[in-house]
Please model this.
Amino acid sequence: MGSPLKQPSAKLIIGLIGSDIGLFGAVKKLLQGKFGLAESESPVFEFNHTRYYEDEFGPGLKRVFIAYRKTVPLSRHHRIKLYTNRLEKKLSSSGKRRVNIDPGYLELSNLTLLTTKPRSNRVHLDSGIYAEVELEFAQNSFRPLAWTYPDYRTKNYIDFFNSVRRGLLDQTREARIP
Model:
C-alpha cells in the first residue's frame, strides 16, 4: 500500500487567445492582482492551427502564455479555471468573449490544461472542471500525446514550456537547500 505524499504544487500557466492584443495587457494586470507577478511570458504567437474561435473573436488571432513564479497547490487549480471563466464573462461584450483565458499547470513531468469539456482522456477535478495532460516530459523535452492540440505540438510552444520547466527545476532545487 502506498502512502499519500505531501500535497503537490505546480507552476500556474495561463494562455490568452484573442484578436485584440491590446486587451492582453489589461487581462495580465487583472491576473497579476490575483496570482502575483509573472515569472516569464512567451512571445506573441499567431494562433492559426484552428478556426474554432474565429466566429467569436474574429480572424487574426494571437496567443501568449504567462507563467507565474509562485506555485499553487494542485487542489486549488479547479478554482483558477472557475475564476478565469468569470473573468472572461466580465470582459465580454454583446454576449461574446473578447479574450479566451486558458489556465493550466506545469509540473516537472507534464503540462496539464484545465477545461469544462469532458472527454475520455480528461479527469474530473471538482465543480465541472477537468484536467487533461497535454504534454509529457520525456527524453529531455516536452512531448505531445495522441490528443495534444496541434498548436501545443509546435516547437515554439514546446521551447517556451521547456524554459518554464527549467525555472521550476531551479526553484525546486532552491527550496531543498537549507
User: Anything to note?
Assistant: The chain has one domain: 9-176. The beta strands are 9-18, 38-41, 45-46, 62-73, 100-106, 110-115, 123-126, 129-138, 141-144. The chain has a mean pLDDT of 92. Residues 84 and 101 are 6 Å apart (CA to CA).
